Amino acid sequence: MRDADRYVVGVDFGTLSGRALVVRVRDGAELGTAVHEYRHGVMDETLGWSGERLPPDWALQDPEDYRDVLRHAVPAAVAEAGVDPAQVVGIGTDFTACTVLPVLADGTPLCELPGLRGRPHAYPKLWKHHAAQPQADRINDLARARSEPWLARYGGRISAEWQFAKALQLLAEDPEIYQRTARWIEAADWIIWQLAGVETRNACTAGYKGIYQDGKYPSREFLAALSPGFAGFAADKLAAPIAPLGGRAGSLTRQAAAWTGLPVGIAVAVGNVDAHVTAPAANAVAPGQMVAIMGTSTCHVMNGTSLAEVPGMCGVVDGGIVAGLYGYEAGQSGVGDIFAWFADHAVPPSYHADARSRGITMHELLSAEAAAQPAGGHGLVALDWLSGNRSVLVDHHLSGAIVGLTLATRAPDIYRALLESTAFGTRVIIDAFAAAGQPVTEFVVAGGLMRNELLMQIYADVTRLPLSLAGSQQAPALGSAIHAAVAAGCFADVPAAASAMGRRQRSAFTPDPDRAEIYDQLYAEYVRLHDYFGRGPNEVMHRLRALRDKVRGEHLAGEPVAAEAGPAVTGPRS
Questions:
Q1: Nearest CA to 535 among 388, 395, 369?
Q2: Which has the least CB within 10 A, 111, 124, 184, 249?
Q3: Domain containing 138 — which CATH number?
């Protein structure tokens, strides 16, 4: 079979939907794509099956939604591509992370067992499930007290989003479900189990989300010190061979072939994370090329030739992006979500009417009006923590703030300040890497937000770096397809496949010196607020969240909420 006749499929499992992409092996041409929306979406207020109210900071999903992507999006993408399925030689996937679920020894999700549909802890916990912050705090405190050597590989703090914190929450809050959990597995690996019929663990999620360093997980002694019942967690519920990225996890089973319409026995690539597969898709795997996958959140990944400890990073893993280099990761847990929150909940009706009359989206309207004002003209600075802080503070109990509001402030002013706040958050990350001896030389953006030209120019001005754009609007799916091509034996390794199949538009945006000078001043103010609220001395954000959680908990339990002062209101107000 000629190279021109070979195709691969990449499947990107996102937060709200899954996308399949058919790609030609020889040049990375994208020939067909299809998207399937998750029927249950994100369950963050109620459990979809029972309608039970969920506590604050929860975010669950239904694994059947993931299977539906295979059943619907993959055949549709192949049909759109107009290729013979017999010419498809491999399939690769990527997933949001850390999205993790409890399963039986055969891979059956616990939420699909009789009697467990109404148990929230039986469901996959999405990456944005932040209710395990108390458990993350315990892990960090104990690791520091014991001087655990792996803690520095994660910038000094383990995140509430990751495997161990979420598992410790499960043990504390639903020990029965914990005991019935035979395997605690990333969705990135579970979907491979569904495709190939074998359990694997990929080097990316194991290293970045599973505290797997230097060939081992945290010790049994450490886990027992957290809780006696947690001592065997790694040995019992995580133990499986760690597979290299680009490796072949197995072959497509008959059942998965029936779902997807692809040939039985084709290569199934080892699982991976949406952010990390994007670097090869943009052909940006050289040291110093920081790739930011910007969507609801942002994940920053970069390769380096040496091992360094970057404060507040999400991790450094040998071979975490490509073999032979140290892969670094950092991130921001809220970016596009912040812009969407403002457009949906904080814009006056007149703006909505204007957008409808002009036939444009609210984001397009706000971006156009914000672009018309000069940098610094709104007099505002915001903290981009509406979904907590992933890097460099690693604290999901922090919250957002806007300083400088006056009666003259208008919606486009706030919108621009929020755009800028996320750029400032990225610069904090870049500065942390530079201070640790890992300088960023090129900033590469992928994801849906790269279509916002105002946002891209702001990032170039704030970071003072040339900003390149990934050549694909669906870079994670392309990256998964690249890994599928390697797994199928079409290329020797991921960098070789990236060179042939990946692409980017170099220096699409460059810094403007005058705006950059103004942003330097605003950034200095951002850093002052960042350190004041995020590093102390003021714990107001934590106190407000604690009060919120207490009041909501009492309300959900039907208990009376104590008033701070004054008599109770027992009748209607006049």
A1: 395
A2: 184
A3: 3.30.420.40
Do 45 and 175 belong together in one domain?
A: yes
Assess contact for 313 and 393: CB atoms under 8 A. no
Closest CA to 231 of 243, 218, 250: 218
Residues 215 and 308 in one domain: no
Q: Assess whether pLDDT exceeds 90 at residue 2.
A: no
Distance of alpha carbon 391 from its chain centroid, rounded?
12
What confidence category does residue 4 fall into, taking pLDDT thresholds of 50, 70 and 90? low
pLDDT value of residue 51: 87
Which of these three, 253, 275, 297, is where a domain ends?
275
302 and 226 within one domain: no
Q: Structural domain of residue 142, as residue ranges?
A: 3-275
Quick one: pLDDT band at residue 570, thresholds 50, 70, 90? very low
Q: Is residue 367 part of a domain?
A: no
Number of structural domains in the chain: 2
Indicate the average pLDDT of the chain.
94
Q: Are 124 and 102 in contact (CB under 8 A)?
A: no
**H or E segment and range at residue 91:** strand 88-95
Q: Name the least confident of 117-121, 243-247, 564-568.
A: 564-568
Phi, psi of 97 (to 5 degrees): -145, 145
| CA pseudo-torsion sign 260, 263, 264, 270 | negative
The fraction of the chain above a pLDDT of 90, given in percent, is 93
Reduce the secondary structure of 247-314 to three states and give it as a string.
CEEEECCHHHHHHHCCCCCCEEECCCEHHHHHHHHCCCCCCCEEEEEECCCEEEEEEECCCCCCCCCC
Residue 356 belongs to some domain of the structure: no
